[in-house]
UniProtKB/TrEMBL annotation:
Keywords: FAD, Flavoprotein, Oxidoreductase. This is FAD-binding protein. It holds the Pfam family FAD-oxidase_C. Residues 51-229 form the FAD-binding PCMH-type domain. InterPro entries: FAD-bd_oxidored_4_C, FAD-bd_PCMH, FAD-bd_PCMH-like_sf, FAD-bd_PCMH_sub2, FAD-linked_Oxase-like_C, FAD-linked_OxidoTrans_Type4, Oxid_FAD_bind_N, Vanillyl_alc_oxidase_C-sub2. The keyword Flavoprotein applies. SUPFAM superfamilies: FAD-binding/transporter-associated domain-like (SSF56176), FAD-linked oxidases, C-terminal domain (SSF55103). Its cofactor is FAD. It comes from Azospirillum oleiclasticum. The keyword Metal-binding does not apply.
Length: 498
């Protein structure tokens, strides 16, 4: 798998495959257990297609009670479990294991309740992100996080990866828009965290679950916050002669105290690819393009548009256009949201990165990435959630040319190391998965990682849920919890122990 090491498969578990399948079929009858090799191919990878592995078996439960029994049975048999939603993850978070059960949550696809009085909806994890907004649009509501893959990605996967989207700058990531979850632990225990009420006191367990990448439990129900659609929303297109000028403008807009509903940036290769694909009316004679959306009362939006255009002019903008209708605004965003598939038309393969930096570092990072592209002899198209510093460089390569995939991976690793170097982090919304797992030591110390693994151990002491992801070296829980004794004495003997 392109040099990516995963936990060594347990030959004893593989030898018990027939017994495992029989136990699972007793829980999920009919076509809910998949064992045929050709049918398993559909689950061999997620959106990070460079890494592939057939699972031992796939099980497709349809009720929380079935999920509970499946997990409990796998724990009793010592079998690993990899939860999977729509499989749109770009970090390998749903990569199967040769000796593991892949738990597909695609049948959990119903909206259970829409509560406009409390401005929330209760949905199953297999409901698509866009499906929530479509279900409440008639009443003037929507669900704010909107990843580019929102037509396909599911809310359970959004919770696992803490997904964002073009409007997360003003309205927050998934963690800011999830009010509660029902989840199942590895031993079959069914928990409820949060709900329709405001935040409760004590540990923020809901915050721990959101973004936990399937390492702590399996989410079977989600309560999401609904927002009222703003009275007015207009998009401003701003073109610049250089990437650096575009980056400087981003920092200046935020520095002026303006928080747009969304602020996205694209460089020339991405602009040309998106325009050829969608025909959104993007200018083709600029090096960088900002899409700045202002929303709220009409008078406020008009005022902010004037301020944004003035700031852009001060930073060398050579193009400016404001959407004149809702249809035009949606077309502007359609171009941005189609940037990933559009880039697929200009390169046989591409590697989509995800890192986050301080906004002020954007011009420097853009310059350094171009230098890296020349060093690795690979092209890169840049698409950014510029307002919050979340970068999505698309490294273009051809997997049929020997060595290009490996160069693309090294290029991507250098980009992520650069993000940390300038004060940023390894991921903004795609998660760590297997893609960034071995880079975690560039951001965290050994003590940091051990503390994170202690949380993992509290939920999954046997390490059976999604092993091989996130942590570069996974310690056994007994090792993390051991007490060092020196000279026959415990350290700090005056501290009470329980």
């Amino acid at each position: 798998m392109a040099g990516m090491k995963m936990p060594a498969p347990d030959s004893g578990v593989i030898a018990r495959r027939r017994e495992i399948v029989d136990r699972l079929r007793a829980i999920v009858p009919g076509e809910g257990v998949i064992v045929d090799e050709n049918e398993l191919r559909a689950y061999e990878c997620d959106g990070l297609t460079a890494y592939r592995q057939l699972p031992l078996v796939v099980v497709l439960p349809s009720t929380t009670e079935q999920v509970s029994r499946v997990l409990k049975t796998c724990k009793e048999m010592g079998v690993k479990v990899v939860p999977r939603g729509a499989g749109t993850s770009l970090s390998g978070g749903a990569l199967p294991l040769e000796d593991g059960v892949l738990l597909g949550m695609g049948k959990f696809n119903r909206i259970l309740e829409v509560d406009f009085d409390n401005r929330c909806a209760v949905v199953q994890p297999g409901v698509t992100n866009l499906g929530i907004s479509n279900a409440v649009a008639h009443a003037g509501f929507y669900y704010a996080p909107d990843p580019s893959s929102q037509i396909a990605c599911t809310i359970g996967g959004n919770v696992a990866e803490n997904s964002g989207g073009v409007h997360c700058l003003k309205y927050g990531l998934t963690t800011n828009n999830v009010m509660g979850v029902e989840m199942v632990l590895m031993d079959g225990t069914i928990l409820r965290l949060g709900g329709k009420h405001l935040d409760q006191g004590g540990y923020d367990l809901l915050g721990i679950i959101t973004g936990s990448e399937g390492l702590l439990g399996v989410v079977t129900e989600v309560t999401v916050r609904l927002l009222k659609k703003p009275a007015t929303a207009r998009a401003v297109l701003l073109g610049f002669p250089t990437n650096e000028q575009g980056g400087d403008c981003v920092a200046a807009i935020i520095g002026a105290g303006i928080i747009p509903g969304g602020m996205e940036m694209m460089d020339k290769p991405a602009i040309h690819a998106a325009e050829a694909f969608v025909h959104a009316g993007y200018p083709l004679d600029v090096e960088s393009l900002l899409i700045v959306e202002l929303d709220g009362p009409a008078a406020e939006v008009d005022h902010l548009i004037g301020r944004v255009e003035a700031i852009a002019g001060q930073h060398g903008a050579c193009y400016s256009r404001v959407s004149r209708s809702e249809e035009e605004r949606l077309v502007v965003w359609a171009g941005r949201k189609a940037a990933f598939p559009a880039v697929g038309r200009i390169s046989p393969d591409y590697y989509c990165m995800d890192g986050t930096i301080p906004r002020k570092a954007l011009p420097l990072v853009l310059q350094r990435m171009q230098e890296m592209a020349e060093r690795y002899s690979l092209r890169v198209a840049n698409v950014f959630h510029a307002g919050d510093g979340n970068l999505h460089p698309l490294i273009l390569y051809d997997a049929n040319i020997p060595g290009e995939l490996e160069r693309a991976e090294l290029f991507g690793a250098d980009i992520l190391k650069l993000c940390v170097e300038v004060g940023g982090v390894l991921t903004g919304e795609h998660g760590v998965g297997v893609e960034k797992r071995d880079l975690m030591t560039h951001q965290f110390t050994e003590t940091d990682l051990e503390q994170q693994q202690r949380v993992k151990c509290a939920f999954d002491p046997d390490g059976l849920l999604n092993p091989g992801k996130v942590f570069p070296v996974l310690h056994r829980c007994a090792e993390l919890g051991r007490m060092h004794i020196s000279g026959g004495k415990l350290p700090f003997p005056d501290i009470p122990r329980f």
